[in-house]
Known about the structure:
Number of helices: 8
Oligomer: single chain
Amino acid sequence: MKNIFRKSTYFGVLFLVFAGVISCEKDFTDIGSGVVSNTKFSTNDTILEVLVSNAGIESIRADGLGLTGAPYFGFQGQYLLGAYISDEYENIEASIISQININTTLELVSYENPDELTFETSIDTAFLRLPYHATLTSNTNRPIYELDSVIGNQQLPFTLNIYELETYLNTLNPSDPTKTNRFQSDHEYAMKSNPLTVSENMDFLPTANDTLVYIKRRNSNGDLHKIDTIRYTSNTSSDLPLPMAIIPLKKSFVKEVFLDNYGTANFDSQNNFNNYFRGIVIEAKEKTHASGEKGGALVAFNLRSSSIVALNPLIEVYYTNTFFKKNSTEIDTVITNTHTFQLGGITNSKYTSNNKTYAVNNEVKLQGAAGSEAKVEILTGTQLTDLKNENWLINDAALTFYINQDSDTTNTANQLYLYKRGEALNSAPILSHIKDVLSEGFLTFGGSLQKENSKKDHYTFKITDYLSDILGGNTSYNPPLRLKVYNTSDTQITDTIFRNYNWNPKAVSILNGDKSLNGARRAQLKISYTKKNN
Length: 534
C-alpha cells in the first residue's frame, strides 16, 4: 500500500475512500470534514520553501485565431491601443492590425436618377470610429461618462498613425496549410510609409467627451448643404449618445480604396478585396513631451462584431452626390450618403516593450500584455524525496504569493494564473494546465487578489491534486511552474494544453521565497496532512 494518499473529486476514487473508511472503522473515532481526529491519527501542516524568479517573455500569441469558443470566435476579448510608460515595470506600446470587411453590393449612387443626370461626388469626411468602454456617471444637463479599461496617464497623449498594411494576413499557416496560422505579439508587419490619417503623428488622448459628431455636407461647389448631427446610441429609441474614439482619415484614401472600387473586380468578393487592400495598422508610439514628462495610457477596445451598430469598430465615409440639370451646370439634386466598413477578418495585437531586466532582489515583477512572468519551482532539492518517505494523507496544498506593498499598487492585477511550462527535447516550450483547474474547477483553484486590512495583500492557489499525484507516484512530471497576470482566455479550457494569450495590461510586484528578506510574507507552499501515529 502506498504511503502517500491522494485527494480527488472523481466518483471512483470517492468510492474507494468510503470503502476504506468502512474497512478501517475500528481505527476511527471521529470523522469530520474529511479530517481525521482521534488518537491513532494526527493532523498537522508544514511550510515548504519555494523558489520564485523573474522570467521575461519575448512574445505571446496575439491573433485570436485559436480562440473559437464563446465569446471569442476568432477575436481576442480586448485589443489594446496606446503607450504605457512606467518606472517600475516595462514600457509597452500597443498597436492593432486588422483587415476590413466590405459589402460587395455597395454602389456610389443610391438615387434612381431616371433622367440619367450627370453628378459629382465629394467626400465630406471620413474617420475610424472605435467605441470606448465607459460608465455613465451623470445625466443631469448632459451625459457624463467615465472611461473604463484604461491604465496609465490619461492627461498625456501618445502618438497615433494609421498605415496601409502590406503583409497578407492568411488564416492558414503558409508552411503547413493544414494548420491554422498564428501571429505572435512581436510579429513584424510590412506597411506603406504614408499615413492614412489626416495628420501625421497625431496626438491621441482617450476622452469620454466625444459623444457627438457634426458632419458638414457640401455640394460640388463647396457650398454648405446641411449639417448632420451623429449620435451613437445603444438602440434606435435612445437619444443617449455613447463616447467614441474618432480618428480622422484622409479623404483621398477612402475615395481611392473604397468608392472608386465599387463595381470593380476588387469589390467582387471579400477575398479579392483582402488581396487588393490587405488591412490597416493602427500604430501607437510613446510621445516625447516638451516638458520632459513621461506618460501615456493603454486603452482597451472590444473589436468583436455586435448586433448594436454603435458598438462596432467602423470606418465611416460621409459623401455627397451633386446632380446637375440636363446639359447644364445648374444643380438639380443633392443626395447625401454614408457607407461604413467594419474592422474584421483577421485582427491582431502588436506589443512593443523595452524588455526591462529586473534586479535580483526580494521581489518579482509580473505584467500582462507580453510584459513579464515568474518562474516558480516547488519540491526542489531533497523536498520531494523527504515527502515521499512520510506516511501522510495530503488534505490540502496551498501556494501563496504576497504583494510587495512598498511597490506601486495602482494598477494591481485582480487575478493571477498558474500553469506548467516544460520543455520538449528540442527545447520547444510545452505549456499545460495544472490538474486542479480540471479536477476542482477554476474557483477552487484560486488566484484572486485577496485583501487584508483594506490593503491588496496576496494570491493563493490550491494545488492539492497536482501535489498528491507527484508524491503518490502517479506522475513524475514536475516541470517549473509559471505565474502570470490572468487573462480571460486562460480558463477557456478544451484540453490539458495551456494557450498563452494576454490583453490584460495590469501588473504586480510579488515577494519571492527569500526567508531572510521577506520573512512570513515570503512565497510559500503550505501543506496540511494527516499522519498515522505509531
